[in-house]
Design goal:
Elements lengths: L1 E4 L10 E5 L2 E4 L7 H13 L3 E4 H9 L7 E6 L4 H14 L3 E8 L2 E8 L2 E9 L10 E3 L2 E3 L2 H14 L3 H12 L4 H7 L1
Parallel strand pairs: 5-8
Antiparallel strand pairs: 1-2, 2-3, 4-5, 6-7, 7-8, 9-10
Helix pairs in contact: 1-3, 2-4, 4-5, 4-6
Length: about 190
């Protein structure tokens, strides 16, 4: 994988392309809300044991193919409580409120609201085998790889059929990521 600047030379969300051998995937220029972008910058400015995965990673950094209303922040360590404390600090910094919607030992679903904007933040302790234990970092944000996300999307389709999951799989395949390769590791 090689990280290269787009021709606009900008910085931040959506200003880079990723090269995977002969494949080049440009990061999305849009897709995440202002609150989502602000939250990610602040969260990853304080925390490096979590990584962004799922639809928000695809929308904000790889494909820009749809909207998303949540942020999936996973960790491979026992850091859910610390992550929750950081979310509360970030919400305060962003003049936002945070409400716990669902709580379990390895999971927190939180609602962060600022004015008329809202985002659901899921903090998840991940136990599943990882293709890449070292996550890439783009604009200071740790992000899961498209290959990893595709494998996870395929597994998720077995337990919950959501149209957005199918859309994500289709768009990843259109971008050159093979379902057959992902099935081998799913």
């Amino acid at each position: 994988m090689k990280l290269c600047r787009n021709s606009d030379g900008g910085a931040g969300f959506g200003s880079f392309c990723l090269s995977f051998g002969k494949r080049k995937v440009c990061l999305a220029k849009a897709g995440l809300s202002d609150l989502q972008k602000d939250f990610l910058r602040e969260f990853f400015g304080r925390e490096n044991r979590f990584y962004l995965t799922g639809g928000a990673a695809l929308v904000g950094f790889y494909l820009g193919h749809r909207e998303t209303f949540d942020l999936d922040l996973f960790t491979l360590e026992n850091e859910i409580e610390n992550g929750f404390a950081i979310v509360k600090d970030v919400a305060k910094q962003l003049n936002s409120s945070v409400e716990a919607i669902q709580t379990a030992p390895d999971f927190r679903r939180l609602l962060v609201k600022r004015g008329d904007e809202a985002v659901v933040v899921d903090l998840v302790r991940e136990y599943v085998f990882q293709l890449e234990t070292e996550k890439r970092e783009i604009s200071g944000i740790r992000i899961d790889s498209p290959e990893e996300i595709l494998a996870n999307k395929l597994c998720a389709l077995l337990s919950r059929s959501e149209i957005r999951g199918l859309v994500d799989v289709r768009e990843l395949e259109n971008a050159g990521f093979k379902i057959e390769d992902a099935l081998a590791v799913a």
